[in-house]
Sequence to fold (97 residues):
Amino acid sequence: MKTIKEFTEVQFRRFRGEIIAVFPYEIWNENDVASYMHVGQHSGCFWGINNNSKPVIKQEYMPLYNELVSIGYNLKIINRRNHSKYLQAYYAQKQAS
Fold:
């Protein structure tokens, strides 16, 4: 879990009717990034999930946002991912393994 001074960048999306928090720079495994949902909680999801999901408005994601804050996240909400930043995180994770 992150310390309070660190921000975790997150996107909130609607995927298969549910709200999902996608952490596009938190590498889960070789093909996935970290995600969080009410049911199932932390899991991996394909980095390209934006192609199969829709953005949501603040009123829709606030319950999930509040849940994440309650477990210790200090979130920075982003609307767009940065592919270069993803690649940097990916290669850093790969070198650490």
Summary: The chain has two helices and six strands.
